[in-house]
């Protein structure tokens, strides 16, 4: 009920914003995910370029539409006719229904192809403070968290309890928590003795800037895929019954 209320409020805000700014939808091009709150408003009206949003784009069940879904919802995950291209970072588990739209990108290669000026401009637009990155160089373990409570998969209490269990397996002096950009949880309140890196940009930026860790820990975030297999500790959705129910069985492949 709360989710649908948020959805309605989001739609109203978007309509007001577009009306106020006199946005011409036929001339508007949208880049982003098409399954998150508010995306349907633009998906039905604009040219859409879909950008990967974690493991969601690789779950085959997301491409199976029930009768109810077909009657009352728009096709998501790149299946809508307005989606012209889909940018992914992996070429496995891509359903046939979207294959023709998919372009698999290599973030490292794209970064290397940029000039120094272009790289600096990207870092400026993402508000990357290189001074804040210095603290990370003294850490050898990173935990990539996920917006599990924000997406109404777990309650915040359940999410924190889960991460407390995971964190208990590692040396807290060597650990840094890298939060997801969409998270609103204040991890510093729960883990005051652990470094929390909550800068609001994708974790892949750390890797292209040379911030590397000996161990990368996650439940099932795709942020770990830029690291060698031997460095990754991937708990998977089997760690909690609600995750297993919502996302199916996700394991490191």
Radius of gyration: 19 Å
Tally of individual domains: 2
SS-derived structural category: alpha/beta
State the major sheet: 5 strands, parallel
Organism: Haemophilus influenzae R3021
Protein name: N-acetylneuraminic acid synthase-like protein
Pfam families: Glyco_transf_52
InterPro entries: Glyco_transf_52 (IPR012477)
Key attributes of the depicted protein:
253 residues; alpha/beta; Rossmann fold; 2 domains; five-stranded parallel β-sheet; four-stranded parallel β-sheet; 31% helix; globular; Glyco_transf_52; N-acetylneuraminic acid synthase-like protein
Describe the structure.
With 253 residues, this protein is of the alpha/beta class. It folds into two domains: 2-105, no CATH class; 128-247, 3-Layer(aba) Sandwich (Rossmann fold). Helices cover 31% and strands 14% of the residues. It is built from ten helices and nine strands. It has a five-stranded parallel sheet, with no helix packed on it. It has a four-stranded parallel sheet with strand order 1-2-3-4. Strand 5, helix 7 (156-167) and strand 6 (175-178) form a beta-alpha-beta unit. The protein is globular. The mean pLDDT is 89. This is N-acetylneuraminic acid synthase-like protein.
Q: What's this entry about, in short?
A:
This protein is an alpha/beta fold and about 250 residues long. It has helices spanning about 1-20, 40-45, 65-70, 105-110, 115-125, 130-135, 155-165, 185-190, 205-210, 240-245, and strands at about 30, 45-50, 85-90, 100-105, 140-145, 175-180, 195, 215-220, 230-235. Helix 7 (about 155-165) links the parallel strand 5 and strand 6.
